[in-house]
Amino acid sequence: MRLTGAEITIQCLQEEGVEYVFGYPGGAVLHIYDALFNQDKVKHILVRHEQAALHAADAYARATGRPGVALVTSGPGVTNAVTGIATAYMDSIPMVVITGQVPTPAIGLDAFQEVDTVGITRPCVKHNFLVKQVDELAATIKKAFYVAASGRPGPVLVDIPKDVSQHLAEFSYPKTVSLRSYAPVNKGHSGQIKKAVQMLLEARRPMIYTGGGVILGDAAPALTRLVKSLGFPCTNTLMGLGGYPGTDPQFVGMLGMHGTYEANLAMQHCDVLLAVGARFDDRVIGNPQHFYSEERRIIHVDIDPSSISKRVRVDVPIVGNINDVLDEMQKLIDASAARPDAAALKDWWKQIGEWRTRDCLRYDRTSAIIKPQSVVEKLYEVTGGDAIITSDVGQHQMWAAQYYKFDKPRRWLNSGGLGTMGFGLPAAMGAQLAHPDATVACVTGEASIQMCIQELSTCKQYHLPVKIINLNNRYLGMVRQWQQILHGNRYSESYMDALPDFVKLAESYGHVGVRVEQPADVEPALREAFALKDRVVFMDFITDQTENVFPMVKAGQGLTEMLLGAEDL
Amino acid sequence: MEANRPMRHILSLLLENEAGALSRVAGLFSARGYNIESLTVAPTEDPTLSRMTVVTSGSEEVIEQITKQLNKLIDVVKVFDLQEGRHIERELMLVKVRAEGKDREELKRTADIFRGRIVDVTDRTYTIELTGPRDKLDAFLEAIDRGLILETVRTGASGIGRGEWILRV
């Protein structure tokens, strides 16, 4: 069967079982859009800005585990998409990004809407391809899906020149793909796993620290089983929330710059640390010199060898598929007669219990002004803890992470690595399309939401009834917080003046807008909004301008050097 | 502390002979702030593969990260640190020198001592070809009068393991 490159592209997406393509048409992809028009298996979601296409595809992948797909045109289509590609890259999200390119004879001649797409995106993709011959197209797309989803996942970009999308080739979709230069390790080293289990069983002050790798590797059930059977405390990174049930007593909260007192101290003072699918990054352990301890031995399980011993030297590295490694650990533990020293473990839990009594997430619940934390707590209650929560970046993101207890994986979608403002709303769209019956809420702030607010229009077009929880403090809150604490209260350019009337703005897009100004109105407003199952509701909560996120570890410091509240400033 | 001292390493790579493979490697070094002393690349007897030699320096930890990051690149098929075994390092240098009067004989003699060859001659210049490890080429440049050097061009090091050890797919 001879098809055009454009038809081949769409056929490949069909073969891969792609449900949605998020994109925006333009000159270089017109043939591909034409091929989309002539079929109805792959549905296209027309966003209002390419950045949003990438974020929505990314969130679709985060919510389902299947690669997200985006389609943009050459030149500005690509440059607008770069933020979204980099966001996915930093969080290891599987995505296939198809970009149009100027026709091959025009490449390099500064043609209209030409950029060096492969060059621009090279540092923020797992891999990219420029397809120069139509007969390589199908095999290239097959490779792109394989590379994106296997090993440590990531975005893969396929750049298709316009003439390639027009030329004819015989189409057959390869069933398998093998690359001599790419063979991700799956099975962990048995000897190392044995050593790790022995170390865990001999621990006196154990700690289990897990990250986004548990979510990406669908290893939450295996992790939960392991933590339960050992009786050890467990903490999750920002990216790892939901990997272990947030309501379980063995969960000590998120760790890191805005982690709980008990999680951070347990990280610092444990004698055996099991790190799973996490990468000891600067926002998690702070300064590695401060983190270092003679007494602590570290086991690190990760699918990416380069994540191991990058910032922190580890004692037992295990490269492998997390789910399989945890399963193998479980089998060894189940088969072993040895058990962790019960008395030592009891003392350790007693110590953790004492740390917990600091009640580090307390805040003023009697305030006459709405406290942002209380909005997230009420959101948790009203949604029964069962919503998919997306967020943007800043204080609201940290409050959502701290106060919404995620019991399941793939319910908390945020830009952890790149920290991309503007992620939240398009991510909510992607999540809602992936799970049409789920409750999806975007926790955001008045600054972040404006970075992709045009997507309210996309929500209208595709009937995506997401709920927007705007924690409006009229400041770039996290910037203001750092300026208060680290820059002598000099609030340089962090005040958000001239804000729109969000209620009217939402209404102008055909949505419901609500402004909430009184603490007593928070819960009723949320209940009313979530009862409107088929509508977008934009809730503008006017919150305390001076509230800060605590605990806080200042950049460059150690995990024990936490500020716990205004009294520590 | 010994492990933290930056050491010179010669990394041998086999990579797919594809457009962009070189820029992926070069980009990785600049993006992550690794040193490159030299980098050479050319296709091998198998035209689908290129062989690259990168000379870099760093602590053991940095070299370990460089090796892991290189291995992560999809176009990179194999990475080997030649420092881990006995190896041969060679670099080619062409030096154009001012060769007049009594310098002419002196330069010829020095080139002979270093087993260099004079590959081009004019009334006033010699162009000398010299092959060897970096140190030897450096030593030659030190041995001749600096003021006579008009131009130098060096290929950067190529390396290969000694004995029966081979790097291939």
What's the gist of this structure?
The complex is a heterodimer of chains A (about 575) and B (about 170). Chain A contains 22 helices and 22 strands. Chain A has about 575 residues and is an alpha/beta fold.
For the record, give the distance between the C-alpha atoms at the N and C termini of chain A, rounded to a whole number. Answer: 71 Å
β-strand percent of chain B reads: 35-45%
Radius of gyration of chain A: 24 Å
Count up the helices of chain B: 4
Biggest sheet overview of chain B: 5 strands, antiparallel
Structural class computed from helices and strand pairing of chain B: alpha+beta
- Beta fraction of the residues of chain A? 15-25%
Secondary-structure element pattern of chain B, one letter each: EHEEHEEHEEHEE
The poorly predicted ranges of chain B are none
Distance between the termini of chain B: 36 Å
Which overall shape of chain A is indicated by the principal axes computed on the Cα atoms? globular
Query: How many strand segments of chain A?
Result: 22
What structural category do the secondary elements of chain A indicate? Answer: alpha/beta
Largest interface: A-B, 18 and 20 residues
Oligomer: heterodimer
Overall morphology of chain B: elongated
Q: Unreliable stretches of chain A, pLDDT < 50, 5 or more residues?
A: none
Averaging pLDDT over every residue of chain B, what do you get?
A: 95
